[in-house]
């Protein structure tokens, strides 16, 4: 049996999405900047896709900018806000994705002051500390992710948005893992910037978007042609854009049934592991369905000399999972997120991340393999 439980790294493309993209690979190949009919036809597809994404987010089409993915969107929001809005201080956390963390570190080297908000031992943000930081520093950008890709912790987006508004700070949230898995109403949230990446919700790789609230005026990150209303130079990834919009449309239409299905998988995995492995626990709050991303379960296995071999052995059994983010796939070593949690570093970590395509049989199979491998190794 082959089981794919690494959906936080990337998801399989939905066939319907692929079918929607195909005509833009084969027939409608014009450059959207061309004014002839071949170009105009493709331009229309892009603008239709932009409107679709905007409608789903209750945003205006002019607030959606297509990018090459989440990393570029995060970089654009953070770097351009700092340079264009006189930002002197950034508040972030130590468990952000590297798309944010490394961008912030690069800015720190150029003289921007950076504060890391306190986290509790489960990796949850200390909102009182955030408030203190916001009070003490003017000209601030807050960048805090909505859903952590490794442990699934959810941020209270509304609460942080209100705090930022009260203290006149800009708020960027890396929403890559929650986009199209939860609804985001941009007219209700006090968010300046949010991010989407199609390959996290059964769309194609290499395409994403940045939502920029209309009250923010920033300059482009990538200079070039006048594409994306002068905000992002470069010929558009037309079939990617069409695929992203289609994937998001499907995700929204089926969100509640997919969520129910995936929560069932996660609950089953928690129960099976608890009943077969003594001392098993879960990193962050990933076993709490209300406080964590429903697609992610980060398992904390009791100390064992061979814990690092667990993911490798699981792979041999046909189960693809990860120990942290994709860049550290196959090992929990080097996970900057797990390192921030108050946990015994000798314990093994496996991140299972689920999708609509997974089944209960797959959960049972993987849980049995973990139990078997673990018991064999501890025997
Ligand atoms: N932010 C988070 C939370 C992610 O999980 C990822 C991808 O793993 C990214 C950003 C980067 O997105 P992309 O792969 O589209 O550049």
Task: Please characterize this protein's 3D structure.
- There is one protein chain.
- A 7-stranded mixed sheet has the order 2-8-7-6-5-3-4, sandwiched between helices. A 3-stranded antiparallel sheet has the order 9-10-12, with helices on one face. Strands 1-11 form a two-stranded parallel sheet.
- It has 379 residues and is α/β, with parallel strands linked by helices.
- About 2% of the residues have low confidence.
- Helix content is 40%, strand content 13%.
- The protein is built from 12 helices and 12 strands.
- It is globular and about 65 Å long.
- Helix 6 links the parallel strand 5 and strand 6.
- Bound molecules: pyridoxal-5'-phosphate.
- The site of pyridoxal-5'-phosphate has 14 residues, from helix 3.
Low-confidence stretches: 324-332
Roughly how much helix do the residues carry, as a percent range?
40-55%
Percent of sequence in beta strands? 5-15%
Q: How are strands sequenced across the largest beta sheet?
A: 2-8-7-6-5-3-4
On the 0 to 100 scale, the average pLDDT is 94
CATH superfamily of the largest domain: Type I PLP-dependent aspartate aminotransferase-like (Major domain)
Bulk shape: globular
Distance separating the two termini: 25 Å
Radius of gyration over C-alpha positions, nearest whole angstrom = 21 Å
How many structural domains?
Answer: 2
CATH topology of the largest domain: Aspartate Aminotransferase, domain 2
Q: Let me know the number of strands.
A: 12
Number of separate helices: 12
Order of helices and strands: EHHEHEHEHEHEEEHHHEEHEHEH
The ligands bound in this entry are: pyridoxal-5'-phosphate
Oligomer description: single chain
